[in-house]
């Protein structure tokens, strides 16, 4: 006799889910000014990130002593990450929508970009001491290559510099959009994979989950449930 609600043990729902749906009717030129239109969001996000830092410090001690991330603080932190992702998706990379981001911390299925993080009932007390800096170092190195340029000196006369990958991919994509009215789907998927990697690391280092972020580019607008 089969159970009433069979469970597929081969699949699991990702505790961190990042969505970014490419608008099929993007304007050819609007990407030139969206960074400017988003200035009100930058101002709000500046203060939200100050609050995010304070909340993360409070959560650090709460997890250390109780093994729990206070639910109200958790929802706020996820909301700040969600807000930042929407603004980035709209104004910086991958510039996948022309719809203006909402001024909201809440999840919105109607908007093109969203972040969802499942609330953990318990978190490891000891892990909170090291995961945000020591354990995350390998990811910091990868993320810095994706989104930040740099220069490394080898003596007085020799050095190596590099430019960030994600902005270059986005620039190529929107220049193609300008001349062809089509956003290259392959570049969009790759940019989404990089953004998803970065956001997963942000969730982990914000102490929201204990699961170590995968070293994997999950490309495309939506990730599969069993990744």
What would you note in describing this structure?
It is a single chain. By secondary structure, the chain is mainly α. The protein has one domain. The chain is 46% helix and 8% strand. The protein contains six helices and four strands; from the N terminus they run βαααβαββαα. It has helices at residues 31-37, 39-66, 71-91, 137-147, 165-180, 185-205; strands at residues 16-20, 113-117, 150-153, 159-162. The protein has a two-stranded antiparallel sheet with strand order 1-2. Helix 2 runs antiparallel to helix 3 (71-91) and helix 4 packs antiparallel against helix 6 (185-205). The two termini are 31 Å apart. The model is unreliable at 1-11 (pLDDT under 50).
């Amino acid at each position: 006799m089969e159970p009433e609600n069979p469970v597929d043990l081969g699949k699991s729902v990702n505790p961190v889910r990042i969505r970014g749906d490419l608008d099929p009717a993007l304007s050819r030129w609007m990407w030139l000014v969206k960074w400017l239109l988003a200035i009100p969001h930058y101002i709000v996000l500046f203060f939200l990130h100050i609050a995010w830092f304070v909340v993360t410090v409070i959560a650090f001690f709460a997890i250390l002593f109780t093994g729990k991330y206070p639910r109200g603080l958790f929802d706020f932190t996820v909301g700040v990450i969600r807000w930042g992702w929407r603004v980035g998706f709209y104004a910086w990379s991958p510039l996948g929508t022309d719809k203006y981001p909402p001024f909201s911390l809440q999840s919105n299925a109607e908007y093109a970009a969203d972040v969802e993080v499942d609330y953990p009932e318990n978190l490891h007390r000891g892990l909170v001491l090291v995961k945000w800096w020591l354990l995350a170092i390998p990811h910091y190195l990868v993320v810095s290559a994706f989104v930040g340029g740099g220069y490394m000196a080898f003596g007085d006369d020799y050095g190596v510099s590099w430019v960030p990958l994600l902005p270059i991919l986005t620039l190529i994509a929107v220049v193609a959009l300008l001349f062809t009215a089509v956003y290259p789907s392959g570049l969009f998927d790759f940019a989404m994979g990089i953004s998803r990697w970065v956001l997963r690391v942000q969730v982990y280092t914000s102490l929201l989950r204990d699961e170590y972020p995968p070293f994997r580019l999950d490309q495309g607008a939506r990730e599969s449930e069993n990744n």
